[in-house]
Amino acid sequence: xxxxxxxxxxxxxxxxxxxxxxxxxxxxxxxxxxxxxxxxxxxxxxxxxxxxxxxxxxxxxxxxxxxxxxxxxxxxxxxxxxxxxxxxxxxxxxxxxxxxxxxxxxxxxxxxxxxxxxxxxxxxxxxxxxxxxxxxxxxxxxxxxxxxxxxxxxxxxxxxxxxxxxxxxxxxxxxxxxxxxxxxxxxxxxxxxxxxxxxxxxxxxxxxxx
Length: 210
Ligand code: SF4
Hints:
The protein is of the alpha/beta class. It has seven helices and seven strands. The strands form two sheets. The protein has a five-stranded mixed β-sheet with strand order 4-1-5-7-6, sandwiched between helices. It has a two-stranded antiparallel ribbon with strand order 2-3. It binds iron/sulfur cluster (SF4). Iron/sulfur cluster binds next to helix 4.
């Protein structure tokens, strides 16, 4: 599996932003965040990008911010996580039958990657997906991760509209399941409720039973 170098500089704007953060927060991770990988897992969760005070600080996807609190709590509730999650990442958490990655591996200013940055990072997502030989479900958290997944499978975007709980066949074996991102903004504005998020993982597990 190809992982980006921590100091990957393919995206000039993101590299610049990283250098600013290194100066400002020298004790933070500040780099391309590696995925949480379970090679044999059937589920892959794809987020957008590291949060400034979350994965960019701790070096682990979704760890340290509100989105992570929601995601890890939900995974535990649905039997996809063992152990306890701690915001600083110093915990005994292990994922069961799932892996977590981000479509863009470096923190973008204001959580908004540009289209060339998303494109630059697609190879890493492609490699992460093909590394999982038992993969059955990819859960896309948000529109950007949905589009990146479609691009890595060389499919036509127009045939795959993003929508919460939309489900598509990517291959004969692999399904895509869309969810609104579990960001603080989406939860606060009630675009995504805990019930809606729970339903995504109930559906994921149903797919695995077929
Ligand atoms: S976002 Fe991806 S391609 Fe761009 S610098 Fe980071 S790791 Fe490299």
